[in-house]
Specification:
With 454 residues, the protein is of the alpha/beta class. 44% of the residues lie in helices and 14% in strands. It folds into two domains: 254 residues, Aspartate Aminotransferase, domain 2 (3-Layer(aba) Sandwich), CATH 3.40.640.10; 141 residues, Aspartate Aminotransferase, domain 1 (Alpha-Beta Complex), CATH 3.90.1150.10. The longest helix has 23 residues. The strands form five sheets. It has an eight-stranded mixed β-sheet with strand order 4-13-12-11-10-5-9-7, with helices on both faces. A four-stranded antiparallel β-sheet has the order 14-15-18-17. The chain has a two-stranded parallel ribbon with strand order 1-16. It is built from 17 helices and 18 strands. Helix 13 runs parallel beside helix 16. Bound molecules: D-serine. The site of D-serine has 4 residues, from loops. D-serine binds next to loops.
């Protein structure tokens, strides 16, 4: 077999890779769920660990030759225990391939098909894997304003709503915050078997103690999905659900800054069932190269530098939110406790899809998003979501956040009257606008000052 490097073996893929590297280097990646991993993490993920099958768990495998893999997986588990300061009776699984399979494994392990689960309403910032379903046309978000509860609909979008009866709590219509009293009332009425917190766009911290009391008062398991906040929680800059929730799931590639993968933490007796749900219940051989990357990323996360990084991620997001507010952007909940800022664009008249595209032409990559009390379709929603994990990894701080807010406002000034324009025409006009081109140039100069270690 040829052992040429990528450049000589496959010019097509090599060129796409180089173009992606250039884009990552020259633009500001501000999607809150993304980050940039260290060279060491990338080396581990691209290593020969990918060649090994190891169905089973350390010291209990179905394949021979796993002595090194056992060591690796146990090391990743040990580091996760340290980073999340687990009590003695908690265990860890690092084999779930990503966040959705991790959540599904928890349901498979602890529930029966058809049991009721209750997570946060998706347009308010929940996650698909917390049981999303809706009624097309008649029952999308705009038809159910000002209520705190959503019973789901006929279109079972996510597998978790096909196999389980999924209902959802919403945020308070005015404050856009979780209302624990209301959630408690709903829980008492609905009596779900599992309550889930966490998601993708809720900018505030969660009272995990209160949520665990609510869940346990109705005999439900409490699952805290901390995919977005994992790095910030482990570093101690946000509340931890450890000790309150029965199970905690997370992806590893967001604020935790590892490669793509997942970790599950939980009480040991429950983890036995969840381990069985992952293998042999849902998955086959674990991705050992991913586990290697996670082990390396966790070692990095255990350093004092990572604590400083996590603090700066939050500070940067708070400065960004404040600056954007001064330019007249409506910040959902008035600010943020974490790495993400959700902007309601209704007062600007130009919504998430077009604004996100315009920002991309200007070198700022963010994403359109739904928001609480959403009145628009998810493919063209009212809000924009921006985040600071990646740009903080680059070393950017408060002054850069102020500059980014200024650029975001300049781009909005260019496009704000173009909401009704045909999308193709919009693309052409934005791409050729002199101010957008100028911002893109200025962004690339800033990015050169904070190079990625590729
Ligand atoms: N796709 C992730 C996010 O962007 O938040 C959630 O799974």
């Amino acid at each position: 077999m040829s052992q040429k490097n990528l450049k000589s073996a496959d010019k097509d893929v090599y060129e796409i890779l180089k173009a992606e590297e250039k884009k990552q280097q020259e633009k500001l990646s501000m999607i809150p769920s993304e980050n940039f991993t260290s060279k060491a993490v990338r080396e581990a993920v691209g290593s020969v660990f990918m060649n090994k099958y190891s169905e089973g768990y350390p010291n209990a495998r179905y394949y021979e030759g796993n002595y090194h893999i056992d060591k690796l997986e146990l090391l990743a588990i040990e580091r996760a225990k340290k980073f999340f300061k687990l009590p003695k009776d908690w265990e860890v699984n690092v084999q779930a391939l990503s966040g959705s399979p991790a959540n599904l494994s928890v349901y498979i392990g602890l529930l029966k098909p058809g049991d009721k689960i209750m997570g946060m309403y998706l347009p308010d910032g929940g996650h698909l894997s917390h049981g999303w379903s809706y009624n097309p046309k008649s029952d999308s978000a705009e038809f159910v304003p000002n209520v705190m509860f959503y019973a789901g609909g006929k279109r079972k979008v996510n597998v978790t709503s096909k196999f389980y009866e999924a209902v959802q709590y919403k945020t308070d219509p005015k404050t856009k915050l979780l209302d624990y009293k209301e959630i408690e009332k709903i829980a008492k009425k609905e009596k779900p078997k599992m309550i889930i917190t966490g998601g993708t766009a809720y900018p505030r911290d969660i009272d995990y103690k209160r949520m665990s009391e609510i869940a346990h008062s109705v005999g439900a398991y409490y699952l805290a999905d901390i995919a977005h906040e994992a790095g910030l929680i482990g570093a101690g800059v946000m509340n931890t659900p450890v000790g309150y929730a029965d199970v905690v799931t997370m992806t590893t590639h967001k604020t935790l800054r590892c490669n793509r993968g997942a970790i599950i933490l939980g009480k040991a007796d429950l983890m036995k069932k969840i381990n069985r749900a992952i293998f042999p219940g849902l998955q086959g051989g674990p991705h050992n190269h991913s586990i290697a990357g996670i082990a390396v990323g966790l070692k990095e996360a255990l350093t004092p530098e990572f604590k400083k990084y996590a603090k700066q991620v939050v500070k940067n997001a708070q400065v960004l939110a404040k600056e954007l507010e001064q330019y007249g952007f409506e910040i959902i909940t008035g600010g943020t406790d974490k790495h993400l800022v959700l902007i309601d664009l209704s007062n600007k008249g130009l919504f998430g899809k077009k604004y996100a595209r315009a920002l991309d032409y200007a070198g700022i990559i963010a994403n359109m998003n739904t928001m609480p009390q959403e009145k628009r379709p998810p493919a063209d929603p009212s809000a924009l979501r921006v985040g600071t994990p990646w740009i903080t990894t680059r070393g950017m701080r408060e002054p850069e956040m102020k500059q980014i807010a200024k650029w975001m406002n300049e781009v909005m000034e260019v496009v704000k009257d173009w909401q009704d324009m045909d999308f193709t025409e919009f693309n052409t006009k934005v791409a050729n606008h002199k101010d957008v081109k100028r911002v893109a140039k200025e962004v690339s100069i800033l990015c050169k000052r904070y190079p990625l270690g590729i």
